[in-house]
Design goal:
The complex is a heterodimer of chains A (237) and B (229). Helices cover 24% and strands 29% of the residues of chain A. In chain A, helix 3 crosses helix 4. In chain A, the strands form three sheets. Chain A has a six-stranded mixed beta sheet with strand order 6-9-10-4-11-12, sandwiched between helices. A four-stranded mixed beta sheet of chain A has the order 1-3-2-5. Chain A has a two-stranded antiparallel ribbon with strand order 7-8. Chain A starts with 5 loop residues before the first strand and ends with a strand. Chain A is α/β, with parallel strands linked by helices and 237 residues long. Chain B is mainly alpha-helical and 229 residues long. Chain B has one domain. Chain B has eight helices and no strands. The chains are: A alpha/beta (237), B mainly alpha (229). At the A-B interface, strand 6, helix 2 and strand 7 of A face helix 1 and helix 4 of B.
């Protein structure tokens, strides 16, 4: 069994604030430990790619960071607060598109933009711009249920980008995409990191993928997981 | 005001989804019609008009109760498809706004079914309302809200259960009994004119109290239910 270790998943200066901090986080389902005593930090402004085989705990790690599941033990902080208190500053994209099949892409995005409304204004990017950024036509009048898998994936990315998140959690973002679309998504994410953040700060990306070659140009750091544990950069113990 | 905007966003979305699919209303309407027709054939309304009037309030609410259960399960099934519920949970909007929006949408769907069902019900049961018919305009929405607000809440409670279709009636029917009693008594009182205005008002007041208490409880507990694992 690999030795449990704490990993600072960043090569940036230690003076940068941590966007995400996990302290001894375990997630146990019945007798199965999806995460085992994971302690790691992700610096603000970094892009970390999490690698690992199926069932290694990558998705569980992202879902714990997103606040969608509570850890059985340990604690998670996002920008020094609990994930629930930082929902406005983060976005999560999973394998599933998280969109309504019966609505068009524009209707889906307008609806989700409304959920980020505060104080009477929807303080998020425009759904039209987000759709154009991922290469989709905002005027497309077909429900998302009739889209190809790749188009759904791009609409899903537009959904998370329009909320202008400081912390972007991507679970297998390149699955279902052809080579050209995946490359376009990589370029878009690289561009996203340069977008200015309201009130200062920088954009942090945590991404799980099996397509290492695609993610490499984006990655500041790489983490490998196995059996619910973080092994360290590039699979090192 | 922001809260109201969120409620309206959810309501508009649910109405749009229903408009595109019409799953809930069609399902409810078909089920409610079946119940009315079956009871109409079983009780011979033309032969026993007094008895029919006495049981018709109960028949109407039982038909609506069972019909609404089909729609309530469906309303959350839409959120589970494609894991949209997780996007809802990640959104900074208050969770209770999602609940209120969905309960209002479900209320509108059931009211549409009632609007279609009422004339058919009157014809099949050969009804002549003996009391103040306008009171039904108060009793029907109050009773519908009582069913829908608890139904929407308990359907959400069973979201992660394996047998959620079975769980909803098991939870909803016992908790709805006080409301069901009030709405059936008030409706029957209006149809038969057996109850005086004070007695009917008492049942209506009980229904209002039930609605206020359970709406408050559901709104307060919804976030916990939504984020439960």
């Amino acid at each position: 069994m690999p030795q449990e270790m704490s990993t600072a998943a960043t090569t940036r200066p230690a003076t940068l604030a941590n966007a995400v901090q996990l302290d001894s986080v375990s997630k146990i389902y019945g007798s199965f430990a999806a995460l085992r005593n994971v302690s790691t930090t992700f610096s603000a402004g970094s892009c970390t790619v999490i690698l690992g085989e199926n069932g290694a705990g990558k998705s569980t790690l992202l879902r714990v960071v997103a606040g969608l599941i509570n850890p059985t033990r340990g604690s998670v902080t996002i920008f020094s607060e609990s994930p629930h208190q930082q929902r406005r500053r983060m976005a999560y994209m999973s394998h599933s598109p998280m969109l309504y099949d019966e609505l068009t892409a524009m209707e889906n995005l307008t609806y989700f933009a409304g959920l980020h409304r505060s104080g009477g204004c929807a303080c998020v990017g425009s759904p039209e711009m987000a759709l154009r950024a991922v290469g989709l036509d905002p005027g497309l009048n077909r429900p998302v249920g009739q889209y190809s898998q790749g188009m759904r994936q791009r609409t899903s990315l537009a959904r998370v980008l329009q909320s202008d998140p400081e912390l972007l959690l991507l679970d297998e973002p390149f699955s279902n995409l052809d080579a050209a679309s995946a490359q376009h998504m990589v370029e878009l994410l690289a561009d996203f990191r340069t977008w200015p953040v309201l009130g200062g700060g920088s954009r942090t990306i945590l991404m799980t993928t099996h397509q290492t070659a695609l993610a490499k140009p984006l990655a500041d750091n790489t983490l490998t997981m196995r059996n619910g544990q973080v092994l360290g950069p590039e699979g090192g113990e | 005001m922001t809260y109201l905007h969120h409620v309206l966003d959810h309501l508009r979305k649910d109405l749009r989804l229903e408009w595109r699919s019409r799953d809930s209303i069609n399902g409810m309407l078909f089920f409610a019609l079946l119940v009315v027709v079956v009871f109409g054939l079983a009780f011979d309304p033309a032969g026993y008009p007094t008895t029919t009037r006495q049981i018709s309030g109960g028949v109407l609410w039982v038909a609506l109760l069972f019909a609404s259960i089909t729609a309530l399960n469906l309303s959350w099934a839409r959120e589970l498809r494609n894991q949209v519920l997780e996007a809802q949970r990640m959104a900074p909007a208050p969770a209770s706004a999602l609940f209120v929006g969905k309960a209002l949408a479900n209320m509108l769907f059931v009211l549409v079914v009632e609007a279609f069902l009422a004339p058919i019900f009157i014809v099949f049961f050969n009804l002549h309302v003996l009391g103040n018919v306008w009171l039904l305009a108060l009793i029907l929405p109050l009773g519908t809200w009582a069913l829908v607000v608890n139904g929407t809440f308990f359907a959400a409670l069973g979201l992660r259960a394996r047998n959620r279709e079975l769980l909803l009636p098991l939870l909803l029917l016992p908790i709805s009994l006080p409301a069901l009693l009030a709405m059936v008594q008030a409706t029957t009182g209006v149809l038969t004119a057996d109850l005086d205005a004070i007695q009917i008002n008492t049942w209506i007041k009980q229904l209002v109290g039930y609605d206020i208490i359970f709406t408050t409880i559901c709104i307060l507990l919804f976030e916990t239910v939504l984020n439960a694992e």
